[in-house]
Design a protein that fits this description.
The protein is α/β, with parallel strands linked by helices. The chain has one domain: Rossmann fold (3-Layer(aba) Sandwich). The protein is 27% helix and 18% strand. It has a five-stranded parallel β-sheet with strand order 2-1-3-4-5. The two termini are 23 Å apart.
Length: 139
């Protein structure tokens, strides 16, 4: 399984950006997770520009970052694109978690930039290391 980070906008700032809901800041924090160090970064409509071997496949991990409601609504409008992926959603702040509209993206895990990524790391490790057939292989 491959991992992808998707944000509607590319951040042009440095890795040490202090802007709280910056996609680059989120990406830098995610890259501290060992299994996400080499994830492929996608922005806006660049998906169609990727070579075939770098395009997400069914079952891949897709980490979506929505800095605000406007971005989240745009992703919900594109939800069919994300249907075949294992979606993790990261929101710009805790205030967005109180509205259930984000469930339309069917995320397996939801977090925000306000939260510690320790629990997210545990979830990502389980998702990336356990294959869908693991239960039948152990019998």
């Amino acid at each position: 399984m491959n991992a992808f980070f998707y944000s509607l906008h590319e951040a042009l700032c440095r890795n040490d950006c202090k802007y709280f809901t910056c996609p680059q800041r989120c990406l830098s924090a995610l890259r501290n997770i060992e299994l996400l160090k080499d994830m492929v970064v996608l922005h806006g409509s660049m998906y169609s520009l990727l070579p075939i071997n770098f395009r997400p496949q069914s079952g891949d991990l897709m980490i979506l970052f929505a800095a605000n409601w406007h971005e989240l609504e745009q992703m919900i409008a594109m939800q069919d694109i994300f249907d075949s992926f294992r979606v993790v959603l990261i929101l710009g702040g805790d205030e967005y978690l109180s509205d259930s509209r984000y469930h339309q993206l069917r995320p397996r895990f939801t977090s925000s930039m306000d939260m510690n990524f320790i629990e997210l790391e545990s979830v990502v490790n389980k998702m990336m290391l356990v294959s869908p057939d693991a239960n039948t292989q152990q019998r």
